[in-house]
C-alpha cells in the first residue's frame, strides 16, 4: 500500500455542519438512566428543603439545577447545538488533511491528528464517515470528502479492523 495519497480541504464549522455531526454520530438516550442526575438533584433539593434547617435558597437552587438538567436531556440536540454555536470555534475554518500519517484537522483553536494505528473502526453513515479511535469518535462529512479520500480512509485500515462501507 502506498502512502503517497494526500488530500486536503477546508470547511466552515457552521450550524449546518454541527447539526449534521449530531444527527449522524449521536444516538439520543431518553431512558430513565439518562435522567438519573436530574432526579438525584431534585431529590437532594427536596430533601434539603423538607428535612433540614438549611437556607431554602440552596434547596431551590438544587431543584432548579435538576430541572435544567432534565431539560438538557429532553432537548439534547438543540442543547448540544447551542453549546457548539456559542463555542469559540464556531464559524471558524478547519483544514482537513488525509495522508499517510492519518486524519488531521487543523484550525485556529485545534490541531488534532488521528493516526491510522489508533483507528479501531470506520462506519459509513448516510451523510459521512464515523471514525472510532482511541480518543473517542469523530465524524467526517461527505461534503468534505472526495470519493478517493473516502476510499483511502476505508482501505487504509488493517485487515483485522471492522469497516462498514
UniProtKB/TrEMBL annotation:
Matching Pfam families: YcxB (PF14317)
InterPro entries assigned to the protein according to its UniProt record, in alphabetical order: YcxB-like_C
Ranges for domain YcxB-like C-terminal: 98-150
Protein's UniProt name: YcxB family protein
Species classification: Bacteria, Pseudomonadati, Pseudomonadota, Gammaproteobacteria, Alteromonadales
